[in-house]
């Protein structure tokens, strides 16, 4: 096995998992900055079935180490025995299997609970419920963190586990019609009920179920998902969701895996679980309700989308919109969840990233387009919020484009 030279690291998980692309981005980003590493794509299309003693993992003999983004609803020891038959060190980057035999880097369940609770308190939830998949250990840890956090705040909370896989479709919502306990909780808990769901698919299924029950969103039930996937963004109404730091989790997993490879060992001494905090919630209609469709807010957001990249001061935007700066800032924060200045910053940064990645325009020109008279000030701004210089970002974008059309991601 090699350290830092022609190292082959495999990536395993179910290709239907919506977050796999973001995990892979984190692995590729790590590989680009830590020597000659090839990522071997071993994603599968089917769920893992029962694993017998003669079953072999697909990476055996192909890689120096494995990053696992897979869950398993069978016996944990059975799964770990199967992983061990690959004869290379492995690190899991999901929290569904916590065991001393397998190093784990995952999103801190307490941080997800905390940011969701903060938001639900802010919008005035009167009761609290965690809803998740009964099979997943990660879901149970998050439910426990949700209840414990609310208890510390002097508020009771309920938890409920759903049987079976949930993909977010109407048939899932119809299946929930047979879940009498869930129906009772939604009908009897003080309203609005603030619900944290284990992921966006569960959140969308709950939304559909509430519609069938005639419950108003968010007046009766305020829903928060997790992962901030396309399901949350494109749902009608759109779903408030906690964004999880998949890229950071995967990169940290790569670092631990390379330590194992260098030490020529399959496991670390003792239990190894490293938690990465989720710090951002994206508020949408399932908690903000009509505020998301308020005419004034729509006009404010449209103005910032069109002009925000220029870096206009909040006072000038408020003046252009015909509202006092104080009113603009206060109402914008209440409706959106962050300040107009933050929205402007995001707009400038996203415009700069797009121009850097998709054009060959000089960086000095891009700096002017996003409201900086000097390239040096633009570079400081960009590095502060993106962690690298504009030039480095452009180089990485070029490398990523090349990687997507070459053997950087090698398929067996």
Write structural notes for this entry:
The protein is built from 17 helices and 13 strands. It has three domains: about 5-105 and about 245-275, Rossmann fold, CATH 3.40.50.2300; about 110-245 and about 280-285, Response regulator (Rossmann fold, 3-Layer(aba) Sandwich); about 295-400, Arc Repressor Mutant, subunit A, CATH 1.10.10.60. The strands form three sheets. A six-stranded mixed beta sheet has the order 7-6-8-9-10-12, with helices on both faces. Strands 4-3-1-2-13 form a five-stranded parallel beta sheet, covered by helices on one side. Helix 3 crosses helix 4 and helix 15 crosses helix 16. The longest helix has 19 residues, at about 340-360. It is α/β, with parallel strands linked by helices and about 400 residues long. The chain is about 45% helix and about 15% strand. It is flat, with a radius of gyration of 23 Å.
Question: In brief, what are we looking at here?
Answer:
This protein is an alpha/beta fold and 412 residues long. 47% of the residues lie in helices and 15% in strands.
Helix-strand blueprint:
Layout lengths: L6 E7 L6 H14 L3 E5 L23 E5 L6 H9 L5 E3 L11 E4 L1 H14 L4 E7 L3 H16 L5 E5 L7 H6 L4 H9 L4 E5 L2 H14 L7 E6 L3 H5 L5 E4 L2 H18 L9 E4 L3 E3 L2 H4 L6 H13 L6 H8 L3 H12 L3 H19 L4 H7 L5 H12 L3 H15 L4 E2 L2
Helix pairs in contact: 1-9, 3-4, 14-17, 15-16
């Amino acid at each position: 096995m090699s350290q830092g030279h022609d190292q082959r690291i495999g990536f395993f998980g179910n290709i239907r998992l919506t977050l796999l692309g973001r995990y892979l981005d984190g692995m590729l980003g790590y590989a680009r900055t830590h020597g000659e590493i090839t990522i071997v794509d071993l994603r599968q299309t089917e769920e893992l079935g029962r694993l017998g003693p003669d079953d072999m993992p697909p990476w055996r003999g192909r890689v120096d180490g494995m990053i696992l983004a897979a869950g398993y609803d069978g016996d944990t020891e059975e799964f770990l025995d199967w992983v061990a038959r690959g004869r290379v060190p492995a690190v899991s980057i999901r929290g569904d299997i916590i065991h001393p035999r397998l190093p784990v880097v995952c999103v801190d369940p307490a941080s997800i609970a905390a940011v969701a609770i903060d938001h639900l308190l802010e919008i005035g939830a009167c009761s609290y419920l965690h809803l998740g998949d009964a099979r997943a250990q990660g879901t149970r840890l998050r439910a426990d963190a949700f209840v414990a956090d609310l208890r510390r705040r002097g508020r009771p909370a309920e938890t409920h586990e759903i049987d079976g896989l949930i993909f977010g479709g109407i048939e899932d919502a119809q299946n929930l019609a047979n879940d009498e306990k869930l129906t009772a909780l939604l009908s009897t808990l003080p309203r609005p009920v603030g619900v944290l769901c284990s992921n966006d698919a569960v959140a969308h299924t709950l939304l559909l179920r509430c519609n069938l029950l005639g419950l108003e969103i968010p007046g009766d039930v305020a829903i928060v998902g997790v992962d901030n996937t396309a399901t949350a963004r494109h749902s009608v109404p759109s779903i408030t969701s906690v964004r999880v730091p998949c890229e950071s989790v995967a990169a940290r997993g790569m670092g631990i895996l390379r330590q194992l490879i260098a030490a020529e060992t399959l496991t670390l001494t003792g239990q190894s679980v490293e938690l990465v905090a989720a710090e951002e919630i994206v508020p949408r209609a399932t908690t903000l309700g009509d505020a998301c469709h308020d005419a004034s807010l729509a006009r404010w957001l449209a103005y910032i989308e069109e002009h925000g990249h220029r870096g206009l001061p909040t006072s000038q935007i408020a003046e252009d919109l015909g509202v006092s700066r104080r009113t603009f800032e206060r109402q914008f924060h209440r409706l959106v969840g962050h300040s107009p200045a933050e929205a402007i910053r995001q707009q400038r940064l996203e415009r700069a990233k797009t121009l850097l990645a998709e054009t060959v325009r000089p960086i000095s020109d891009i700096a002017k387009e996003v409201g900086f008279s000097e390239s040096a000030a633009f570079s400081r701004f960009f590095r502060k919020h993106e962690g690298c210089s504009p030039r480095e970002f452009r180089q990485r974008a070029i490398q990523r484009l090349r990687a997507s059309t070459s053997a950087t991601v090698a398929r067996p």
